[in-house]
Specification:
The strands form two sheets. An eight-stranded parallel beta barrel has the order 1-2-3-4-5-6-7-10, surrounded by five helices. The chain has a two-stranded antiparallel sheet with strand order 8-9. The chain is of the alpha/beta class and 307 residues long. α3 runs parallel beside α4 and α7 packs parallel to α10. Helices cover 39% and strands 16% of the residues. The chain is globular and about 50 Å long. It has one domain: TIM Barrel (Alpha-Beta Barrel). It is built from eleven helices and ten strands. This is Sugar phosphate isomerase/epimerase. Keywords: Isomerase. GO terms for molecular function: isomerase activity.
């Protein structure tokens, strides 16, 4: 993928780099296999990052005053909160969806965040990898997804002053280049931005540079991630679900995987936009001493890319 794009470092003061609980093996609000939240905050600051995402609601303190104190004394600021939604299921899920979105949006706004990353729900169970829905949406479900997302974006903007960035993700209905383009073409560019996760997009066969060059006005947020091409080939050949693929090591630290991040960041730097570029290396579960050295190396690599 990256071979078609000449690598060149990006240097843009309009791209702010950060990391997330995901890079410390955090997928759930409460799980004994995960890094404790105080250790995450200590280590993400130690690694040289100034920005973080909230991760699963309830992992970090949900009292805004306490969270501001804990992040502030470590020199950290919050860029975004994250929610999972199942808007393709139609109006019947709206009330439950809004209840969880509103609490995350409220906390995000209270601690100074400006974005809400919205991830479509998995069609596999996120713990067992059991198939729970068809991987393909019907035409009606596509309409529910697009109109529901526009409604969500409008409500979040009006009530909380946040912008949403929808995150294509492996094992969701928004994954491949065709699905992402269909979604973008069917949603209002004035309401709905995209969170481009370079690793997930590569995992699903997409070209991040091409997406930025084609739909640059829709890129509102970045997740920086790479996939190991050898592991990915095995995952694709065997049809391995995403959770087991992560445990197999499909996501890797840069610059060991694809896509090459230098051309991605160079393309993003040309956009007329202020962007967050948040490192997210999926590795749930992982030994407690593994994340910090990776985070330090990744931060150093990104400095070499001009961030």
């Amino acid at each position: 993928m990256s071979a078609t794009h000449p690598a060149s470092p990006a240097s843009s003061p309009r791209i702010r780099v950060g990391s997330a609980p995901d890079s410390w093996g955090v997928w759930f609000a409460d799980d004994p296999a995960q890094t404790p939240w105080r250790r995450f905050l200590d280590e993400v600051a130690e690694a040289g990052y100034a920005w973080i995402e909230l991760g699963p609601y309830g992992y970090l303190p949900t009292d805004p005053a306490r969270l501001r104190e804990e992040t502030g004394r470590r020199g950290l600021s919050v860029s975004a909160g994250t929610v999972f939604t199942a808007l393709h299921r139609g109006p019947a899920v709206w009330e439950d969806t809004w209840e969880q979105v509103a609490r995350v949006a409220e906390l995000t706004r209270a601690v100074g965040g400006r974005h809400l990353v919205v991830i479509p729900s998995f069609w596999r169970d996120d713990r067992t990898a059991e198939l729970i829905e068809s991987p393909e949406l019907t035409a009606e479900q596509w309409r529910h997804l697009t109109t529901g997302t526009e409604r969500l974006a409008r409500e979040v903007r009006e009530r909380f002053g946040l912008g949403i960035a929808v995150h294509p993700h492996a094992d969701t209905h928004l994954d491949t280049e065709a699905h992402v383009e269909r979604f973008l073409d069917a949603t209002d560019s004035g309401l709905v931005d995209l969170c481009l996760d370079t690793g997930h997009y590569a995992y699903c066969g997409g070209d991040s540079v091409k997406l930025i060059e084609t739909y640059g006005e829709r890129i509102g947020y970045l997740h920086l991630k790479q996939v190991d091409p050898a592991v990915l080939a095995d995952v694709i050949a065997k049809g391995t679900p995403f959770g087991p693929a992560v445990r197999q090591g499909v996501m890797c630290e840069p610059p060991r995987g694809v896509p090459a991040l230098e051309p991605v960041l160079a393309a993003a730097a040309k956009l007329d936009a202020d962007l967050f570029a948040i490192v997210e290396q999926d590795m749930y579960p992982c030994p407690p001493d593994r994340p910090l050295p990776i985070a330090r190396r990744t931060r150093g690599f990104l400095r070499g890319c001009g961030l």
